[in-house]
Specification:
mainly beta, 34 strands, disordered N terminus, 1% helix
Length: 360
């Protein structure tokens, strides 16, 4: 997954306290434009040469912790570090802890799912040149926070990044992505392929091909609701963001027939979407592709059901234009870092909002 940015170095004041094997990082909450709807949390601690920023990391959230794996630093290099933030009683993330067990390889653009007490991660780009891997790993969530040792498991059928994977009923389903044909980033092509596999405490089972996605696409935004998978946006082979949306049923036999549903309000890719209680909430994303991508601060939400996605409504704008990573916990949407629309490239800002403030 290739991208070029101009980087402006920004000073960030950080206090680091080292305790045993863990690093606790506390940062001031002064992200940009903290509005009444979007509050500011502690900045993400991924750092390169004194500058903080992260993008293309993969995150999972539960009622107590927000976990993020790998990602690109401000200079475009992938990392293996894992950090997790503790959600306070008030809902804020006041600090991040470095996980003792790093990911087995430097990685960005992988796809990770939370499945039954374990985190499973698939593929991703493993170097600054954007070369992809088919390797997959999994680790157990610790009860006191953090992730345990990572174990190698069944590889994805092809080297890939920017695919969208979701977990449902002990299965993982992966859609689209940048598929490599000979192991080099120069041969990647947006794909319509879809695969699924069984999840267990022993890892990922054998992958089986299932119903292809209706469009060749990488960086689609997919989520689960009502025992189905919903996907929207993505980028086509000409680097054009897409606005279409589809949904399908999920079962132990794979993905069912894809059905078109209400299009996203604007062509976009990489918007961060998460679903809860019959609604989906989407933040930011890129509205143009290529080497000079433009980003949006738009936030939209819609009702979802077995009949598809309902009418999209606009929520309060995110504090900056960005392609970020978000997760839902305890009625709040948390978003961490991302590619932003400024010359700074990756940022390390953390913002969160209650779902009631987003939906009005």
């Amino acid at each position: 997954m290739k991208r070029s940015v101009t980087v402006l170095i920004v000073a960030v004041i950080t206090i680091v306290v080292v305790v045993s094997a863990l690093v606790f990082v506390f940062q001031p909450a002064g992200g940009p434009n903290c509005r009444s709807a979007w509050k500011c949390g502690a900045g993400y601690p991924l750092e390169e040469a004194g500058t903080y920023g992260v993008a293309a990391q993969q995150c999972a959230v539960n009622s107590t912790y927000f976990y993020c794996v790998g990602g690109l630093d401000y200079n475009g290099g992938p990392h293996s570090e894992i950090y997790y933030g503790t959600l306070s009683v008030s809902g804020n993330i006041t600090g991040w802890t470095q996980n003792p067990a790093s990911y087995p390889v430097d990685v960005s653009g992988e796809s990770c799912v939370d499945g039954g007490g374990y985190m499973y991660c698939v593929g991703g780009a493993h170097d600054a040149g954007g070369d992809d891997t088919s390797s997959s790993y999994y680790a157990q969530f610790n009860s006191g926070g953090g992730l345990g040792t990572w174990f190698y498991t069944t590889s994805y059928p092809i080297a890939v990044d920017a695919q969208a994977c979701v977990a449902s009923a002990s299965y993982v389903y992966c859609v689209g992505g940048n598929n490599e044909t000979d192991g080099t980033d120069g041969t990647v092509a947006p794909s319509s392929s879809a695969w699924y596999a069984k999840l267990s405490p022993s890892g990922i089972g054998n992958w089986s091909k299932t119903t292809p996605y209706p469009a060749n696409s990488y960086l689609p935004s997919c989520f689960t609701a009502d025992n189905g998978i919903f996907c929207l946006g993505g980028v086509d082979s000409s680097d054009n963001p897409l606005g279409n949306a589809y949904y399908a049923s999920l079962s132990s036999s794979g993905i069912g027939q894809w059905v078109p549903t209400t299009a996203y309000p604007l062509p976009a890719t990489g918007q961060a979407c998460a679903s809860s209680n019959g609604y989906v909430y989407c933040v930011g994303g890129a509205t143009s592709g290529g080497q000079s991508a433009a980003y949006t601060s738009a936030v939209y939400f819609a009702q979802v059901s077995t009949s598809g996605i309902g009418a999209w409504k606009e929520g309060p704008d995110y504090p900056l234009s960005v392609g970020t990573t978000c997760g839902l916990a305890s009625g709040r949407l948390y978003c961490v870092g991302g590619y932003d629309g400024s010359t700074e490239g990756e940022d390390n800002y953390v913002n969160y909002a209650s779902l009631s403030s987003i939906s009005g």
